[in-house]
Every structure is written in structure tokens, then in C-alpha cells.
Amino acid sequence: MTPAQKAKAAADARKVVARNKKARHDYHIDETFEAGISLMGTEVKALRMGRASLVDGWVEIDRGEAWLHGVHIPEYAQGSWTNHGPRRKRKLLLHKQEIEKLAVKTREKGHTIVPLELYFTGGRAKVEIALARGKKEWDKRQTLREKQDEREAQRAMSLRRHL
Predict the structure, then answer these.
(1) Integer Cα distance of 20 and 102 in angstroms
(2) Which H or E run includes 12?
(3) In angstroms, rounded to a whole number, what is the distance separating the alpha carbons of residues 68 and 12?
(4) Over the stretch 15-65, which tens digit does the pLDDT of each residue have?
(5) How far apart are the first and last CA of the chain?
(6) What's the rounded Cα separation, in Å, for the pair 148 and 129?
(7) pLDDT of residue 163
(8) Which of 21, 27, 54, 151 has its CA 20 to 30 A from that of 115?
């Protein structure tokens, strides 16, 4: 692999800025989409520093446009009067068919759109959003129990290999 190819591969690699672990705990993920995100210059600089929070985020479809609400991107320290609002709503860049599909699905009871991951790929900021259904409390407990059982099984297999 030539140095130029290595540089291109490194630039195209996915550099994750923030993950929403709570979303996978609180929701059944039905379908995921990758969306571009319209940002100001200071927001991009703050994201490149690796600071953001998706925990309280959600997506709303309004007049044929997708908007990301509740995502916290802190103000850029070296920014001046051009700095952005940390929790302002941001426009998502999706195809019209994807927006229509999401709009139809979110009208159904119990469905919502949540952000899962915020990352850079090829120098552009992207957000992975998911069409999700809310979990009931017993679903969350059952998921935790299954994960714990799987961990215990892996631990037992690991111990058995070492004997």
C-alpha cells in the first residue's frame, strides 16, 4: 500500500466523537440511517476536539425537513462572538425518500427517531440515527439479564480453556 493510499484510508476512517449508549438500552432499534449534519464552523472545531453529548437528543420531522434537537455541542473555547448555541437545533441532511419514510413511521404509536453516533468520515460530520421503539421496563431487565448470562458463559468458557 502506497503512502497516499494509507493517507486516504486514514482520512476515510470513521472517527467517532460521541455515542448514545443509553439509546440502545432504552429502545429497540428497527432501522438505522446515516445523515449529514449542517454545522457552524465553531461546532465543527468543538467536535474535532472530541466533545459532544447525544444523551438527550431526538430527531423531529418538520415540513419535509429533519431536525436534530437536544444534542449538546459545547462552545468552542477560542471562539468569539461567532460562537454557536450549545443546544441549538441542527438540520439533518437526508434524501427526501428517507425523510418521508421516517415521517410515516414516527406517526405510528411508540416509534421515535434517536441519534446513536456522531462521527467524522472523510472529513465530514455525520450522525447515525435510528428509527426506534421504546422498551418497557421488563424488556430492559430481560436485556440486562441476557447480557449478564452471556458474560458468565464467556467467562466459564475462558476458565475451561485455561485448565
Answers:
(1) 20
(2) helix 3-12
(3) 24
(4) 888 888 887 878 888 888 999 998 877 788 888 887 788 888 888 888 888
(5) 42
(6) 27
(7) 64
(8) 151
